[in-house]
Amino acid sequence: MSGSRMDAIRTLHPAYFAFVMATGILSIAAHLMGMRAVAFALLAVNVVAFPVLWLLTAIRIARFPRDVLADLTDHQRSVGFFTAVAGTSVFGSQIMILLGASTVALALWVMTLLLWMVLVYTVFTALTIKQSKPTLDQGISGGWLVAVVATESVSTLGSLLAPELGAGREPLLFVSLTFWLAGGMLYIWLISLIFYRYTFFKFSPSDLMPPYWINMGAMAISTLAGTLLVANAGASPLLRRIESFTLGMTLFFWATATWWIPMLVILGFWRHVARRFPLTYSPLYWGAVFPLGMYTVCTYRLAAVAGAPFLLIIPKVLVFIALAAWSLSFAGLIRSLARRPGVGEK
User: How far is CA 128 from the centre of its chain?
Assistant: First the structure.
């Protein structure tokens, strides 16, 4: 490889698996909306992107371990590694829903679980014992909520797989339930810090990075995980006992996700229109595309389990907005790669 390509791999952003997350969930959204050709086209993109990103990540770990270690202990970049967890799960869900390949999806779920166990405790331990730490306003962002997305992603794929496992269904649903609850608690911890940072520290346009949309996306995937648990309640004695609680919490998560949307639109207007902050491609923008796709899918699923068909107007409209956001980000990615023969950004 040329020096420029190796430098691009060395600086590859840990959050690049958000591309797989965004592409996978939009593929599922298109499938649910009857856009079969779009769904399978996005599946084809992920069939290429997923192994390529893992190959580049493996090269980076082997050739540039110091850079990887530096990222793991960085308060801004370390949380980007959680996109590998969520990306693996979403890709598994995409394969399960579009192809019905439960064996492949199960292998990806096991991979998701192992990645979660390694990365969650590695990253949070590293940030806890680190001697030199930034102030709250410099160290935390909406990107931290990818830890919630990663946790909930274990639940979503597990719930999708449960009906295929026979005797293993009940243990898998129990695991899905515990991860759903743990992800909800993790959101409460983190969003409290993020909201405090929002309202009590100086805020500039450069601070409003695209991953702030994960404020909404983390609650959207929590909603989706809840709907899948409710859908499985009839086949699980445990879930049947707490079905009302699960549906109530799922509605709570959806309402929270919905609350964030106008706030994030207003802040985006303030950043790019009022303050004229330049809109240029960054891999972090995939962290803004993913929540749009996830909100589309979770609202579609919520309408079914809650008996609220009037909600279907939302995914029927939002799917086109999400696809437009994906297309613009993908065009930015292609332009970025055309300008520089590499794959990443610092």
Answer: 23
